[in-house]
Design goal:
13 strands; Tyrosyl-Transfer RNA Synthetase; 3 domains; six-stranded mixed beta sheet; Rossmann fold; alpha/beta; 17 helices; Structural Genomics Hypothetical 15.5 Kd Protein In mrcA-pckA Intergenic Region, Chain A; five-stranded mixed beta sheet
């Protein structure tokens, strides 16, 4: 079954918005006009199970291709997850057990299908083909590339030039990713601009074995909520697609004003004409940036959850953050109040901070209050029913466990 023949107007929008580079654009446009049902390759490394808005840029593009009748092939990198890939960094990723890979893949796919149409996606596991590889297959694959070609990859070249070690298994990674394209007979592979080298290796290997080389569609890198670095879990500047709507809303309201248009363009379907109006309004200061951020949050949450969830999250933000009201559904924690409590330990136990160091940072920033009073020391006095607030959106209610003879667990005391 073929796909819909695409008009020039459809192709223009498909290959322009949220696209950094296409290799080769004329060839891909011709395939889209032909009505051929294209096989769209999207691979993922199950070392990390969560998807954030940075990943959403490419996934939305996949969905657009699906809506035109094309087939997404999702490759679970269960085999290469046991090797490690620097992917533009100067550290390798840890090897995973088969159980960890399966658990991460399950979580990933639940989030993946919040954006991409599950019914139009074929899921493949690398072990389907690499599980049958023997040493002769490895030699045959490596014989098609030279060390000089691999050192053309920017991060490899930098590490080699600076004397940092590069293992042979790391050199294998782009070759194995390239073989994925051969195994599924990929027509188009998607990725970020930081993956350009690996995508080109796949194209070259396909030519070598007699397949038509895949087209490459690269999307821009989404800047994180800090306004300066690529969105990343390790940097803490990310917005996860599976986070509660209230958290997504709050995080989007915190992005720098100069990222508003970029986020609209990359992670929403707001028409280009309307985006241009947003640009002019911001430039001439005829709109409050906060109003545009509210619209942005509604658009994103409606895609990931529902319009009702977006409206509810907006109401929560208005009451809890803007009007500084306390939400009704605060989680309660039973803590012994018979002695002074170490606030850093309490913040970690109640999940208001991920660690004692983060707790210290929040306190130093004046972001922690108890019953509306700012916390300034490490030891505090609490009463049953006290409300602890960390930042703008995190709350916890303390219940005195001494009354019900329940001892606290995990609270650090000094």
């Amino acid at each position: 079954m073929g796909a819909n023949k695409s008009s020039d107007r459809d192709i223009e929008r498909l290959l322009r918005r949220s696209v950094a580079e296409v290799i080769v654009e004329d060839e891909l446009a011709g395939l889209l006009r032909s009505g051929k049902r294209l096989r769209l390759k999207e691979g993922f490394d199950p070392s990390f199970p969560d998807i954030h808005l940075g990943h959403m840029v490419a996934l939305k593009k996949l969905r657009q291709f699906q809506e035109m009748g094309h087939q997404v092939v999702l490759i679970v990198g269960d085999w290469t997850a046991r090797i490690g890939d620097p992917s533009g960094a100067s550290v390798t990723r840890p090897m995973l057990t088969a159980e960890q890979v399966k658990a991460n893949a399950k979580t990933y796919m639940e989030q993946f299908f919040k954006i991409v149409d599950k019914d139009k996606t074929e899921v493949r596991w690398q072990s389907e083909w690499f599980g049958k590889f023997d040493l002769s297959d490895v030699f045959q694959l490596t014989s098609k590339f030279t060390i000089a070609q691999l050192l053309a990859r920017d991060d490899f070249n930098k590490r080699y030039s600076s004397g940092c070690p590069i293992t042979m298994t790391e050199f294998l990674y782009p070759l194995l990713q390239a073989y994925d394209s051969v195994a599924i007979e990929s027509d188009v592979e998607f990725g970020g601009t930081d993956q350009k080298f690996n995508l080109l290796v796949g194209r070259e290997l396909q030519s070598t074995v007699g397949q038509r080389p895949q087209q490459i569609l690269m999307v821009p890198i989404l800047i994180g909520t800090d306004g300066s670095h690529k969105m990343s879990k390790s940097l803490g500047n990310y917005i996860g697609v599976a986070e509660p709507p209230e958290q997504i809303y709050g995080k989007l309201m915190s992005i720098p004003d100069n990222l508003i248009i970029n986020y609209f363009e990359l992670v929403t379907d707001v028409p280009d004409r309307e985006l241009e109006q947003f640009r002019q309004d911001l430039e001439h200061e005829t709109v409050n940036p906060m109003e545009l951020k509210k619209r942005l949050a509604r658009e994103v949450i409606s895609q990931l959850y529902s319009e009702e969830a977006a409206i509810s999250a907006g109401g929560h933000f208005a009451s809890v953050v803007q009007n500084k009201e306390i939400p009704e559904d605060i989680k309660e924690y039973h803590i012994s109040l018979s002695e002074s409590i170490d606030i850093k330990g309490l913040l970690t136990v109640t999940h208001l901070a991920k660690s004692r160091s983060e707790a210290s940072r929040l306190i130093d920033q004046g972001a922690v209050t108890i019953d509306g009073r700012k916390v300034t020391s490490s030891s505090v006095e609490l009463k049953s029913g006290s409300i602890i607030r960390a930042g703008k959106r995190r709350f916890a209610k303390i219940v005195n466990s001494d009354i019900i003879k329940q001892s606290p667990k995990g609270v650090d005391r000094e």
